[in-house]
Each structure stands twice: as C-alpha cells, then as structure tokens.
Amino acid sequence: MSQYKGLLFDLDGVIVDTAKYHFLAWKALADELKIPFNEQDNERLKGVSRMASFEIILELGHRTMTTEEKQRNCDRKNALYVSYIQKLTRNDILPGVESFLTRARKAGYKIALGSASKNSPLILERLGITDLFDAVVDGTKVSKAKPDPEVFLAGAAELGVNPAQCVVFEDAAAGVQAAHLAGMKAVGIGDPAVLRQSDVVLPGFGGMDPGELLARL
Ligand code: B16
Ligand code: MG
Question: Is-catalytic flag, 199?
Fold first, then answer.
C-alpha cells in the first residue's frame, strides 16, 4: 500500500452527475423570478452551498431579498431537486467509480465522502453505494464552504487518518483548493483547464487502478 491511507470523494460531478438536476431546479426558480440564468452561470454554483448558490443567482438578477424570502426560495428549489434525484439509480453512477471504490476498499484504503450537499445521504442511498463509505461528511456537518478545508479535515478526522495521508477527488476548482489548504493531494476529475491546480487530472475513473493512480502523486 502507498503512503496514502484515506481517500476523500466529492459527490456531485465525481460520483454522479447531479449538476444537471441542480441546474434544472435553479433554472425553474430563476425563470419564475425573471432572472436570466444559463448553464454557464450554473458553473459558478458547483461545489457552492445551496444558500450561497441562490445568492449568486440574486446577484445575477441585481436583486435583494430578506433572509426569510431567500430561505423560502431555497426550500422550493430543494423540493424540486429532491423530486429529480428520487429517480436516481445505480445506472447514474459515473463510469468506473464503483469499481474504483471497491478496489480501493479491498486494497485497505479508508474512504470518505466530502460534499457540500445536504442531500448526500439520500443520493448515496438511491445509488446503492452507502456501504462503500467509512465516513460521510456532508453539508449538514460543516458550516464553511469549499475552498475552506473544513469538509475534508472533518472527513480525515472521521476516518482517523492524518490529512497528509489523504487524497481528495474533486471536479470543482474550489474543491481542489480546499484539498490543498487541508494539506492533502488533489486528483481533479474533469476539465484540465478548470482543474489546473490539481496534482493529477483525469477525465474520469474508467479502468483506473487506485494503487497505480496514487503512485503518480
Ligand atoms: P444541496 P458537491 C455541491 O455538491 C454541488 O456541487 C453544488 O452545486 C450544490 O449547490 C451543493 O452541493 C449543495 O447541495 O442543495 O443538495 O445541499 O460538489 O460538494 O458534492
Ligand atoms: Mg463537485
């Protein structure tokens, strides 16, 4: 086994592509509020908490709201989003992820989820992969959003692994930054232009062996 002992996975964009459902739900709300919002704007919401996402949308529309109004709108967006993710199944797990997680577990690595999403437990359950995680740190357990390292430090603590022996898998630039601020290595999953600060960038997990990948860090 390598010098690394703990693997921390972001959820949206790494394990499952829920960004499209977040977009559809935010888009429905933005349309109702007559705020222009497109897929490019949606990029700014990746890895960002629900309330902070809505604040970005309000900023796009040059609008302000009271805390209560903001909360009500976030609740409406979430109800719509939850209705979409109820339909997730094992088939929605991104290619290669399940075999990578299974191989990593067999090889003795500890595995945690480190996500901003308060819906993480529901999503893992719908995908049928809850049992592959030794710890789940989600948006209900942390208060500071990525790039703050809180979510990954909490994940390492729950795993009982030193942060320097952890590797983070992330699709968002803010998540890569959070990993580095936690003193961890970061594997970027997705676009090398967005993830240029990562220690390694992969287009996805397809056929990747955990040991071989960690040897490249
Ligand atoms: P929820 P991650 C993040 O998940 C998403 O990327 C981001 O778009 C979303 O706003 C955030 O979760 C909060 O999600 O509304 O379900 O609590 O990428 O950190 O796994
Ligand atoms: Mg993500």
Answer: no
